[in-house]
Design brief:
Layout lengths: L2 H13 L6 H6 L7 H24 L26
Amino acid sequence: MSPALTGVLREAADWRSNKLTSSEYDETTWSARTCLTFVAQRISVAVQLSMAQEAAEALGLSVAADPSSCAVSERAPTQMGLWT
């Protein structure tokens, strides 16, 4: 991440005392128990899914996805239908 984005994320985490809301806590894994790590993990997953879709499209593969999974998901690309 760029230094500018990192700074903004740190400010936001500080504003929230680097704590998750109860719904975020329920949504995340053991590896992201602070606001900053949770947001970084969500950004990472979104980037990985986007890269997988770009690669699949470049290779001419089907990139159909479940329409009910419009939000960022932690499911693997195969579970989202990217490699089918």
